[in-house]
Structure prediction request, 339 residues.
Amino acid sequence: MTVASPTQRPLTTDDVTYLVRASFGPHTRVRDCGPLTGGGYATVWWILLADDRRVVLKLAPPAGTPLLRYERGLCAAEARYFRLVAEQAPEVPVPPVLHHGTDPAYGEWLVTGMLPGRSLYELAEAGATIDDGPARYDLGAALAAVHRVTGDRFGYEGERASGATWSAAFTAMLDALLADAADWDVRLPVTPDRLRTLVGRHAGALDEVRRPALLHFDCWDGNVLTAPGPDGRLRLSGLVDGERFLHGDPLLDLVSPLLYRRVEDEPEHPLLRGYRAAAPEPLVLDAAARRRLGLYRLHLYLLMTVEMPSRGMTARSHPGRHAQLAALLDAELAALGTD
Prediction:
């Protein structure tokens, strides 16, 4: 496979066979396999086993690979997320966890069942003319179901950024990204002090969130699988890549599905219609909610900027991405600064 990121590693079919047998036993046979593209963190392959099962192998970055602070332990986190959703929101289609293991030579890996369908991103890249409204409606309903699951603290699990309140956790998440930016010598279009001051200014809006809901965080189109339903319309068939999950404000999960857009400006978007139909409480997009959404977009664009060198990208090698993120950050900073 072509290694797209320093966090990914090349695999051979012999490597895949070894990891499959370490997962399912020495007599398990691989009939066919190949790499899955689209992600920039782990190495991912699809596998067809001799017993006709289709599975997905996800291999974590090698030990010692420089990562962002929130990316530590993501393989175990993904297994945890899928199990949580399967147990507490079983109506939401997530891959079944088949094996989570470690090996002295290969490190950590995860094997899940392979869900049917193609991602919304893949369909768009293929130039398919489709009505994706029903699938996005289903995504909204699925997120509402996931958000009914409650954690015992805000933020990430383990030793990563977290807090007793949402403002404390969100501030810790921001501080971790700023520390990553310093480590990787990433130049930001705003000073750390200005960012911290801005978040502190809106701490009251953040602390209107009193319940740490389970969040996927990364529901961009590449992680949303779809397939035709019985009526031929495109429906949700799976949520994948749950390794970045955390607990916090449900509004955070409405940012990535409308990447580079403002969900509050599209109240009749199918995602919101599906969410409203399934959520146990009304979806309120008042002034405080809009400020929080602005903070969450700011956090996401900051993350996407800071992660660039860890993925082998620079402002020189990817000038379009860098310029777009800088402009988006500036727009959110300006909007939040005038609220």
User: Anything to note?
Assistant: The CA atoms of residues 144 and 279 lie 5 Å apart. The chain has two domains: 13-113, 120-338.
